[in-house]
Write a structure and sequence with these properties.
binds NADP nicotinamide-adenine-dinucleotide phosphate, Rossmann fold, about 300 residues, alpha/beta
Length: about 300
């Protein structure tokens, strides 16, 4: 099947396109700057929507995956940065809607990125898709993002929302940053370390997206997190043991708040113990349920 991937140039997008191709699907990446990336998939720009070649490709059944969005934890959340975070999600959906209106037909299924930030700070209680929304900025942003998606005028399309946890991959995100700290002998938990880190291995992330595309009964929100979330302290100790490096350096919360402000508070110092209840109900089988195995696979596997 043809799968149109918005944000396919990103961390999850590139891995997903690779996986889709390996499984005999055809990824078509739509990017703001398609020529910027040296990746071997069909890449087009948002302005190519009406072109005959695309019209032909979308005349059969196709899927859409939207993974666009400026990095949440890349920078301090100034007023300006918050606007970028909001526009790159909500306004991008409007752009995607215009793009799809020019296609010969609606997609069969549309998988939309969201995040477990939706749940806010939930301490150590179990959280699933029925749990309430949080009450911080990230919860507000993810809720607005999901609402904008639900309101898109795609009457015949099956809509799926993926609330993704912390994606573990060596290619970017949190893991390479932590490795730098461990290699400099300042590895350890951020803050007190009791906050939950609901993670998912990149391989399971892309497999789960494909599972939800292929499962014609899947609709609504799904948590994309491994079934066994761990505390930040547990994660730091596991990483230290695998790398054979000390994990005793605790980065104090006040320092993180000083450096990164509200962003540190909401993304590093608090968390939620998120469980993939609906994915399990839809018979998704994880490869990596244990954080130790996931990290060993990423860090010790010969590439
Ligand atoms: N990685 C994680 O751990 C994680 C966890 C939870 C949720 N998510 C969500 O999942 C989605 C994909 O994550 P990712 O880590 O793959 O993201 P990413 O690599 O940071 O970026 C994804 C894509 O978004 C587009 N983009 C970036 N900045 C933008 C801006 N200012 N305006 C419009 N588009 C912009 C880019 O596509 P083009 O430049 O090609 O247009 C980029 O390739 C994101 O929405 C993210 O919030 C990720």
């Amino acid at each position: 099947m043809n799968i149109v991937v918005f944000g396919g140039t990103g961390l999850i997008g590139r891995a997903f396109c690779r996986y889709a191709l390996m499984n005999n699907h055809v990824p078509i990446i739509v990017s703001r700057n398609p020529d910027r990336f040296d990746i071997p998939y069909k890449k087009i720009s948002y302005t190519d929507a009406g072109k005959p070649v695309l019209q032909r490709m979308l005349s059969d059944e196709y899927a859409v995956v939207n993974l666009t969005g400026a990095g949440i934890a890349n920078k301090r959340w100034s007023k300006q940065r918050k606007k970028v975070l909001e526009r790159s999600r909500i306004e991008m959906l409007e752009r995607i809607e215009v793009f799809l209106q020019q296609a010969p037909q609606e997609p069969e299924v549309f998988v939309q990125a969201s995040a477990i930030g939706f749940y806010g700070d939930k301490g150590d209680v179990n959280v699933d898709e029925d749990s309430t929304q949080g009450n911080n900025y990230l919860s507000w942003l993810t809720e607005e993002w999901e609402s904008a998606f639900k309101e898109m005028s795609l009457e015949d399309t099956r809509k799926v929302i993926i609330r993704t946890g912390i994606v573990l991959t060596k290619d970017g995100g949190v893991l390479p940053k932590m490795l730098t700290a461990y290699n400099a002998f300042v590895g350890g938990p951020l803050g007190v370390g009791n906050q939950f880190l609901s993670w998912i291995h990149i391989e399971d992330e892309v497999r789960a997206i494909m599972h939800l595309i292929e499962d014609s009964y899947a609709r609504g929100a799904f948590n994309l997190t491994a079934p066994v979330p761990v505390t930040m302290k547990h994660f730091a100790q596991t990483l230290g043991a695998i790398l054979d490096k000390s994990s005793f350096f605790r980065v104090p919360a006040f320092l993180l708040k000083l450096l990164f402000g509200q962003m540190a508070q909401e993304t590093m110092l608090t968390g939620a113990k998120v469980l993939p209840k609906r994915l399990m109900e839809h018979e998704f089988e994880f490869i990596f349920t244990d954080v130790d195995l996931a990290l060993r696979n990423l860090l010790l596997k010969k590439q």
